[in-house]
């Protein structure tokens, strides 16, 4: 096997406009070229070249719907890589009250592709460990479902046996805001989907931002024993 072309991928991500495109899609969105041009702050004619480079680097895939083209991140690993890069990146300067509000909302609760991140995501991971649904092993830590984790999750509405086998059931990301783990993998996606289905989460106006609803606050406290007063 030849050496990995990290430089090629880094060059594709490294342009500020392309980075904005990737981050706009990091919450699992599927967006048109014009929508991505608006996110990146470039013209429709300019965005096509950026999208071509991201497709060539296999960071994006494109879906055709008649004459329309829609873009998404190629894999969950791309979202995971963006989250990890954020750990070592310096924050952008906040230039308006709107930017400040969005930055704070992202830190509070956001989607990392298809699973919950931010303070809320980290609190959920802690609660699953405290409640004995997950158990931690080894150093560096890995996580697994505990003996009664399947039953506890089934009572919540997530049947582990039916989760897709094409990806790991239990994974984690190091949250760039909290510098701690939040739950990823098929289980992280399923729990997040269930929280949306129950009306515990709603999407914010800004890309990737999510909000815990009043019923969500009651639900996570009742089911997971979470204290969300500071979230």
UniProtKB/TrEMBL annotation:
Note one Pfam family from the annotation: HTH_20
Q: Where is the HTH arsR-type domain?
A: 1-93
InterPro entries assigned to the protein according to its UniProt record, in alphabetical order: HTH_ArsR_DNA-bd_dom, HTH_Metal-responsive_Reg, WH-like_DNA-bd_sf, WH_DNA-bd_sf
* Classification via SMART domains: HTH_ARSR
Q: Name one GO molecular function term.
A: DNA binding
Q: Which domain of life is it from?
A: Bacteria
Give coiled-coil spans as residue ranges.
none
BP GO annotations: response to cadmium ion; response to lead ion
List, alphabetically, the PROSITE patterns matched.
HTH_ARSR_2 (PS50987)
Listed name of the protein: ArsR family transcriptional regulator
The organism that produces this protein has a lineage beginning with: Bacteria, Bacillati, Actinomycetota, Actinomycetes, Streptosporangiales
């Amino acid at each position: 096997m030849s050496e990995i072309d990290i430089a090629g991928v880094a060059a594709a991500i490294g342009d500020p406009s392309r980075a904005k495109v990737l981050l706009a899609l990091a919450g699992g969105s599927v967006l048109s070229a014009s929508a991505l041009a608006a996110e990146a702050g470039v013209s429709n004619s300019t965005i096509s070249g950026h999208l071509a480079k991201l497709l060539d680097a296999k960071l994006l895939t494109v879906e055709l719907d008649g004459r329309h083209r829609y873009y998404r991140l190629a894999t969950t690993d791309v979202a995971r890589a963006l989250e990890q890069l954020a750990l070592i990146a310096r924050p952008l300067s906040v230039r308006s009250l709107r930017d400040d509000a969005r930055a704070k909302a992202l830190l509070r609760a956001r989607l990392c592709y298809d699973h919950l991140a931010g303070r809320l995501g980290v609190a959920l991971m802690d609660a699953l460990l405290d409640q004995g649904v997950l158990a931690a092993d080894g150093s560096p830590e890995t996580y697994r479902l505990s003996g009664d984790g399947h039953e506890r999750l089934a009572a919540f509405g997530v049947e582990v046996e039916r989760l897709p086998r094409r990806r790991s059931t239990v994974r984690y990301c190091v949250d760039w805001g909290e510098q701690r783990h939040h739950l990823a993998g098929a289980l992280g996606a399923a729990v997040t989907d269930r929280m949306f289905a129950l009306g515990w989460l709603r999407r914010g106006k800004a890309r990737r931002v999510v909000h815990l609803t009043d019923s969500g606050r009651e639900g996570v406290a009742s089911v997971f024993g979470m204290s969300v007063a500071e979230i």
